[in-house]
Amino acid sequence: MVGLCDKPSKPSFVYEDADTLWDKINKIAKKVYRASEVTADAKVRAQIKRFQDDGYGHYPVCVAKTQSSFTTDPRCAARRTTTS
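^ thats the sequence. predicted structure below, dont judge the formating
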């Protein structure tokens, strides 16, 4: 592991700073968590749009996951390969 620290690296980012908040959320879900899509009801989408319109779109987005984030079915013990 220490040897890896001595090698040059080029970081890659999941989204561009100029992306909208909704696009940042989508890119994180799809690239990091392998989601096939991101869904949100109208109230949530309106709040995200309000944040964007109020000038918060340039801020980074952090997504916190819970065990229920991949599925709402408590009988499903295995991690799904796709999420929505």
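The chain is about 35% helix and 0% strand.
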